[in-house]
């Protein structure tokens, strides 16, 4: 099966890099699915989005992201997020608390985290 190099990077860490068969990301233009051979593009990530990566040699991975960009070229997909966390790293009770915060950033991150948890529980 064809694959493409993918990097998921947040401001403070390299979250994941490897070969994947598909990437989906929520952008300001809607949810975009990227397969190997996709046309080059640049998209802006939503403030409380979800990115899903299907590695070439493993199970689907789901991340909560906040802001940033999705860049696609012939060789690589780069997701550069202001903040990103894998669904298996999320503390669900903390995310639920954050959704009710008066702080807009915490609220947005809590919402993204809960959405990523829901997406991770979905079967493909």
TrEMBL record:
Domain named ATP synthase F1 complex delta/epsilon subunit N-terminal is located at 5-83
Query: What CDD domains is this protein classified in?
Result: F1-ATPase_delta
User: Which InterPro entries does the UniProt entry name for this protein?
Assistant: ATP_synth_F1_dsu/esu (IPR001469), ATP_synth_F1_dsu/esu_N (IPR020546), ATPsynth_dsu/esu_N (IPR036771)
Domain of life where this protein originates? Bacteria
Kindly list the GO CC terms recorded for this protein: plasma membrane; proton-transporting ATP synthase complex
What would you give as a GO molecular function for this chain, any one?
A: proton-transporting ATP synthase activity, rotational mechanism
- Tell me how this protein sits in the membrane: Peripheral membrane protein
- From the Swiss-Prot or TrEMBL record, state where the protein is found: Cell membrane
UniProt-listed SUPFAM superfamilies: Epsilon subunit of F1F0-ATP synthase N-terminal domain
**A Pfam family that the UniProt record links to this protein:** ATP-synt_DE_N
Keyword terms, alphabetized: ATP synthesis, Cell membrane, CF(1), Hydrogen ion transport, Ion transport, Membrane, Transport
PANTHER family assigned: ATP SYNTHASE DELTA/EPSILON CHAIN, ATP SYNTHASE EPSILON CHAIN, CHLOROPLASTIC
**NCBIfam families noted in UniProt:** ATP_synt_epsi (TIGR01216), PRK00571.2-5 (NF001852), PRK13442.1 (NF009977)
Give the family this protein belongs to, as stated in its UniProt record: Belongs to the ATPase epsilon chain family.
Its quaternary organisation is:
F-type ATPases have 2 components, CF(1) - the catalytic core - and CF(0) - the membrane proton channel. CF(1) has five subunits: alpha(3), beta(3), gamma(1), delta(1), epsilon(1). CF(0) has three main subunits: a, b and c.
Role of this protein: Produces ATP from ADP in the presence of a proton gradient across the membrane.
User: Can you say what this protein is called?
Assistant: ATP synthase epsilon chain
Gene this chain is encoded by: atpC
């Amino acid at each position: 099966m064809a694959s493409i190099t993918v990097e998921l990077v947040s401001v403070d860490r390299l979250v994941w890099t490897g070969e994947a068969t598909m990437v989906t990301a929520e952008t300001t233009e809607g949810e975009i699915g990227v397969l190997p051979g996709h046309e080059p593009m640049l998209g802006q990530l939503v403030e409380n989005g979800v990115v899903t990566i299907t590695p070439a040699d493993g199970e689907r991975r789901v991340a909560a992201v906040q802001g940033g960009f999705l860049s696609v070229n012939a060789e690589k997909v780069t997701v550069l997020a202001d903040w990103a966390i894998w669904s298996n790293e999320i503390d669900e009770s903390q995310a639920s608390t954050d959704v009710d915060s008066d702080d807009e950033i915490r609220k947005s991150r809590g919402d993204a985290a809960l959405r990523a948890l829901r997406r991770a529980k979905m079967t493909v």
